[in-house]
Write a structure and sequence with these properties.
single chain, alpha+beta, D-Maltodextrin-Binding Protein, domain 2, 3-stranded antiparallel sheet
Amino acid sequence: MSGKWIYRAAIGVLGCFIGLVPLSSRAANPVKLHLAWVTVGVDYPLPLLNAPGVPLHLGKTYTIDAVHFTGTPAMITALGAGEIDLAPLAFSVFSLAIENAGMSDLRAIADGFQDGVAGYHSTEYMVLAASNIHKVEDLKGKILTTNAMGSGVDIGMRAMLHKHGLDGKRDVTITEAAFPNMQAMLVAHKTDLIIGIPPFSFDPALRSVARTLFTVRDAVGPTQFLVWAGRTATLQKNRAVVVDYLEDNLRMLHWVSDSATHAQAVAQFAELAKRPPETFQWLYTKEDEYHAPNGLPDLASLTKIIDAQYEAGFLKTKLDAARYADLSLVKEAAARI
């Protein structure tokens, strides 16, 4: 599947809360937040899970319209058109939105996840176990598959090629495919390298035929890989509601990470993704990417990886992430917990 496909899941007031919340405390018209996402278990809005009593504001001050994309680059257009309010942007897309799309009003407001943090998972780039590809240089003349040109994992792949003297335009052929389709393409020899992100990379069937050639950590080191971002007009107009959402998201982050409720979360993610529950046991554990429990992104790390983008020729100018961040919302949300 190529391009963008959109799945919208609108949520109203949850019925189980109706009898518990006095009418005077309910918002007459909850604000609908349009939230982008790519992968269940990675950036899917956590308050949409069934965890009664955990999200405090869902259905009261806000509802959620979840908009699905195959990769974060397409979110730039949607942000520009006002189709989405908040987006989980890969570092590469965040910087390109500011530089190429002219979104100087874009602000990073919260952590999405951090890749390559010591003791945690890092995205894998995988080849067939039986292939003759044993080092990055062996990729010359091969077909490599990414989810979307310019996505964070795409930049990680290109940065690794660059480090090893390979040109992403001249020395290899790069194609696009949705993450769920990559395994079949690799097995059918339609591509020589795929990007393995959870839950797909933990599929035993894939592990039985593929091996990891390198990781994002190998390519660019520990990285503030994903940040939640929005435009200042939206953040100012709906500040109180966004803070409510961020609070609920942090509460849900703690809920899905808690060993007492982890199995419930795994079962729901598996149902959403239509995959066996055992393929989601890694979720929100040390086998997963790092999620900051207070929601604060590492702006120094974000600046460092954007600098690496610039040094590799993917950006025309360097960007200071702190200049394009507003962490006051997530700090306010975290202070309530």
